[in-house]
């Protein structure tokens, strides 16, 4: 799954894929990234990475995921925690940024 940030929007693409996670940032939206993340409650910029809200991910997945997603997503969070990519309170998942 990945978070796609374009001018004026933040969306979750490929929500059923729990094997990878990143933020895809449009070069046209680069300057407005912090504001877009905040206004959509998707997360926050932290250095050169984005801390994406786990609650936002779950809400964006509603009605768009297959059976077993909760289990796969929980495993994704456990893996991320082991790598230091999950906030201490488990509320945000760290994602690197790729531009397009």
Reconstruct the topology from this structure:
Blueprint: E1 2-6, E2 9-13, E3 22-25, H1 33-40, E4 43-46, E5 49-53, H2 54-61, H3 69-83, E6 92-99
Parallel strand pairs: 1-3, 3-6
Antiparallel strand pairs: 1-2, 4-5, 5-6
How would you sum up the major sheet?
Answer: 6 strands, mixed
The strands making up the biggest β-sheet line up spatially as 2-1-3-6-5-4
Radius of gyration: 13 Å
Q: Catalogue the unreliable spans.
A: none
Compressed to H and E, one letter per element, the order equals EEEHEEHHE
CA-to-CA gap between the ends?
Answer: 16 Å
Strand content: 25-35%
Mean pLDDT: 97
| Broad shape | globular
Number of separate helices: 3
Tell how many strands the DSSP assignment holds.
6
Structural class: alpha/beta
Helix content: 25-40%
TL;DR of this structure?
The protein is α/β, with parallel strands linked by helices. It is 31% helix and 31% strand.
